[in-house]
Amino acid sequence: DQQVKQNSPSLSVQEGRISILNCDYTNSMFDYFLWYKKYPAEGPTFLISISSIKDKNEDGRFTVFLNKSAKHLSLHIVPSQPGDSAVYFCAASESNFGNEKLTFGTGTRLTIIP
Amino acid sequence: DTGVSQDPRHKITKRGQNVTFRCDPISEHNRLYWYRQTLGQGPEFLTYFQNEAQLEKSRLLSDRFSAERPKGSFSTLEIQRTEQGDSAMYLCASRSSGRADKTQYFGPGTRLLVL
Question: Hey, which residues 71-100 in chain A have their CB within 8 Å of chain B?
Fold first, then answer.
């Protein structure tokens, strides 16, 4: 049972344009969401997070939007740069319920075309 | 400020052998997590420590797996009688106990190949 889903395995975007990565979840107890970026043979690098009490969080070129009613979140990267090419993972936890584990999606490979 | 470190970065072993991995968390972090990632999948939770206490274990953690954090600092993950299905990237993460920042920060991982 995949509680966190990233339905697009890959995405290609022209350099300078906006990249939009999507994530859906089924567990209504999730209250904390994170995006990680991963290069081959490295561990995931934290990008940005959002609590369920918010619907938007912004950090530089990265913005995460949360739509609780649709159980959907998205990561916007603007402008996209070649160094953004990596696999992006969405993750969620039931942090307010004492459940520490992160549940990850299967990832979306983002390729930025120069 | 050093991040989470893991040792070794790579391990090749024969089926049936035991292996042990080490994780050193960020120094002020009292919570430590182990995850496993296989090809094409996201990381999957294995177990979690708060200080030296192991508070949660996934059903993925069979009897052949054991994790320790004896002094509440570094942690070890041991796999006994390895099987080819154990081949994966083993990731360690840590976070502080503060309520404000719930972010888990990951190490570089240990890639295990069981022949």
Answer: 89, 91, 93, 95, 100
Amino acid at B8: P
Chosen from A100, A103, A104, A106 to mutate, greatest number of chain B CBs within 10 A? A100
pLDDT in tens, A20-63: 999 999 999 999 999 999 998 889 999 999 999 999 999 999 99
CA distance A93 to A70: 17
Distance (Å, rounded) from C-alpha A10 to C-alpha A14? 14
Residues A42, B42: C-beta atoms closer than 8 Å: no
Q: Write the Ramachandran bin of A51: left for phi over 0, alpha for psi from -120 to 50, otherwise beta.
A: beta
Report the alpha-carbon distance of residue A5 to residue B26 in Å, rounded. Answer: 30
Q: What is the largest CA-CA distance in chain B?
A: 44
Judged by a CB distance cut-off of 8 A, whether residue B90 touches chain A is no
Distance CA B51, CA B69 (A): 7
